[in-house]
Amino acid sequence: MGTTAPRLDILAPLSGWLVPLDSVPDPVFAGKMVGDGVSLDPTSGSLLAPVGGVISNLHSAHHALTITTAEGVEVMVHVGIDTVMLKGQGFYPLVQQGQQVSAGQPVIDFDIDQVGRHAASLLTQIVVTNGETVTRMQAAQGLVTAGRDVVLTLELANGRDASPLAGGEPSLSAEIAIGNPAGLHARPAAVFAAKAKTFASDIRLLLGDKEANAKSVVSVMGLATQLGDRVRIRAQGPDAEAALTELARLLDERCGEKADEAPVAPAAEPASAPQQDSDTRLAGVGSSPGIAIGRIVHHRLQEFDVPEQGQAASLEQQAFSRATKEAATQLDLVKAQLSDPAKQAILSMHQELLQDPELLAQTYSGLADGKSAAWSWRAAFSAYSARLEAQDNPLLRERANDIRDVGRRVLALLAGVKPATLDLPAGSILIAEDLAPSDTAALDPAKVMGFCTRTGGATSHVAILARSLGIPAICGISQAALRLPEGRQVILDGGEGTLTIAPTADEIAAAEGEIARLAERRAAEAKSSMLPAATRDGVRIDVVANIRNAADAREAVAKGAEGVGLLRSEFLFDNRDTAPTEEEQAAEYCAVAEALGKDRPLVVRTLDVGGDKPLSYLPLPKEDNPFLGLRGIRVSLERPDLLRTQLRAILRAAPLTRLHIMFPMVASLEELRAAKAVLAEEQQACGQHEVKVGIMVEVPSAAVLAARFAPEVDFFSIGTNDLTQYVLAMDRGHPQLAKQADALHPAVLAMIAQTCDGARAHGKWVGVCGGLASDERAAPLLVGIGVTELSVSTPSVASVKATLARWSLDDCRQLAEDVLSLSTAVEVRHRLNQSAR
Ligand code: PEP
Ligand code: MG
After folding, report:
1. For this structure, is 686 an active site residue?
2. Cα distance between residue 347 and residue 152, in whole Å
3. Does the annotation count 756 as an active-site position?
4. Which CATH superfamily includes the segment(s) 7-156?
5. d(CA 389, CA 400)
6. Catalytic residue among 59, 62, 461, 660
7. Most confident of the ranges 39-48, 435-444, 576-585, 661-670
8. Residue 294, helix vs strand vs coil
9. Beta-bridge mates of residue 101
10. Residue extents of the structural domains in the chain
11. How far does residue 262's CA lie from ligand 2's centre (Å)?
12. Counting atoms of ligand 1 from 1, which one is nearest the CA of 719?
């Protein structure tokens, strides 16, 4: 550092006349209470950044913002006097908080006439709010031109620019391994970017020699991180150190994503292997089950003619900012018509993209080169969607469609084209190269019987939306589908992934029969859902529900559940800063028990966290193989304080219901005995002995040794989700293994049979509470193997009960005998499909 103090020039944010600050008719500014600087009487309505830096504050009324420069100087620009009262009316922000801007870049547009008419004054203040960073300030005078003339010259406090705190030197984190099974796909990327935006510093996520703007979802997704990738974070700016610490922690916590929340191809509705095209059938990937008959309607995306050259940059800016605002309002309207939170979340993501700093930065750079807003925006979103499209990770490829969707929405507004609405005739089968998620969300299931898209897969938002609307759908259909004549009758099978293009009268009749049969079946099931669950010959099977809390318990009972086979108690521990107290837990367990009443069973599983299900307030060592580490009962035995509190709370529900306590992830008898010893002490202390004790069978050792566990438990409940993972050595959240990690694999079924044999020898009962129990086709098989309780998701209660009522116990046993001799999951599925009733 030399002897000359570093200088910083502040450019005119608007054109107009400079006025000394002390003559501003507002004592707060005139008295320099906000900071020293200068005022300006504007003649232009496009506010430019007076310095380069990060938008460290953008007032919610959009009339003022602060930019923090790399040297740590905070420059505030406040348009007008008392303009906060306008509550944003007439102001159009072009940037958002946390965004990096360069000097001269347009940051807020405002309607100078409207603001002038309603505000006390248009005088605009440019002040330094942290005066300690400045030793001298020289204000210019007279007429200035926005973005060209200097209005303030600052001499900075010596050494300020070299201080890392001020952002001179970037800080770098240690390497962090990505723990998200599908990498930083849309959801974790959005969580990460949202956190990064809360810091003023410039923050980058580094992977090898690639880097992403940490504040941009599209940029973070574009990095295409994968499970196990080692990344670093680089931050430069006034709060760089805090940013590194918090963001590194967030990545360590997988940006809040639980391993079993990571999106995978829908395992509950196993997609069939893609079939081959034939003369009469086109094949794709079945992405939403069901059969539909209808007539083809093609949907082609509109083309927009956009001029490359723009008008004045400020006009283009204004148009762009209006279009993004309008697009956000449109999305709000579509969202308001939806009741499904999953669909709303997809549209919220689109709104988020409208403010993505990388998309905006790229658009602004086009405007700065004289291009039109439409041309610049299209170039920006097309580049990012193409980048995602080229990724190996299917979850990232699917998000390219979301970027294009929101991109086209803004483009239509800029081009002044009314977007073509999907107003389709009744009985349509929609065929499209690509269907925008927002269009899909707005489809009317009464008119659209089904749809096929060329692009997309089972994990696409389009597929998710189709399933939630109950519309059969196929993604990845072959190109030939786009050339089929409009109006032709076809049959779409969303389970098989086939489109029959010239159905014979017999095929149509068969499909109609199948559709009618399914509809009748669902209606009948709903009617008989409150009857006791039993086989056709009257053998009682308990069909109970998996729940998280008392609200779920009430819903389950209303839908016919005969009790609760799995209360996942970890949901009471989640999303908090401290563990719930005994009182808090007891209140919820008692509320669940009351919802069930004294005659229905309640199985409470003790805390099943650790490894893949972290709790922020439960420090556990970082593990290379969290699925094989401290999980379930192992955590409770490490932390007996937590276990004791929980057991005391659970026992308080005993007088209210038929209480069962279940320990998760038990691998050895020692673990069971240690947990039971703690329970016995707590029972002794509270005098409550009316409780049954069981274990989850999720680890192969528990299944193999079921006969040795049986004398020491009252019951077993098989967690097929984890059991499948451990028997097949396939991560339950792995997107590519989703199809193979099949609970109907003969090895998993053999483990279930072994558990039943071991339990039967000691007169103990076996339930299944993993996802397999909710599959109605598997229900007779499980009963035939010896399972007497099926704990299912609430929407499956009716269909599982109805299926059991169609089977006699002997038939179930015969089915089990046949299936247990098969060698592959495909054979098992085939056999179950054949025997489905
Ligand atoms: C299971 O593993 O099948 C199970 C029911 O437990 P969870 O899905 O909660 O791990
Ligand atoms: Mg489990």
Report:
1. no
2. 44
3. no
4. Glucose Permease (Domain IIA) (2.70.70.10)
5. 6
6. 461
7. 661-670
8. strand
9. 53
10. 7-156, 171-256, 281-300+424-525, 313-415, 541-835
11. 15
12. 3
